[in-house]
């Protein structure tokens, strides 16, 4: 048995990271659904505890006082579109965030590139789509300038508070 925590062990910490960084939150079972249905597509950035892991420590990450549990500092939660309206296999980024303490280190870019590659390689995705708030300049720069996404359209009042979203997409064909 490995003492290294699995992705599923980390789901509560991933959920905490999401709640800390974004107003769009999900039930734990939705994270689990992603992990079970598309295990190749979601990734997590962790800070390893000093001295490594010890068997039997760390279950129930939030209450861990042993210092032996990894800290989740970023994640990308991704899926394949189950009923694509255009009939084209494609991936979708459900959620991405990085803790403030660990931003501008290239973590989000790396998480996104890993997920995009897995979508193309494991699921033959033609493209990847996502939604982002029109006011979210940091994420927009990441998606448009660093990763090469394009704005497909504006979706009016997409978010619960009435803000509009850019629907963005990136072509994945012929990249890998
Ligand atoms: N201002 C301007 N450009 C930025 C910023 C910023 N604050 N942050 C990232 N970028 C751009 C830059 O071009 C950057 O490259 P550079 O550092 O060489 O200039 C590039 O993106 C890559 O940055 P990363 O270091 O990989 O990004 P980071 O790990 O800091 O995470 C993120 C970016 C995810 C947007 C982070 O700021 C965050 O968690 N924000 C809050 C949550 C959020 O908005 N998530 C996205 C919602 S949309 C969705 O989930 C589909």
UniProtKB/TrEMBL annotation:
Keywords: Acyltransferase, Transferase. One of its GO terms (cellular component) is NatA complex. Residues 17-173 form the N-acetyltransferase domain. GO terms for molecular function: protein N-terminal-serine acetyltransferase activity; protein-N-terminal-glutamate acetyltransferase activity. This is N-terminal acetyltransferase A complex catalytic subunit ard1. The chain holds residues 7 to 182 of 246 of the full protein. Belongs to the acetyltransferase family. ARD1 subfamily. Coiled coil: none annotated.
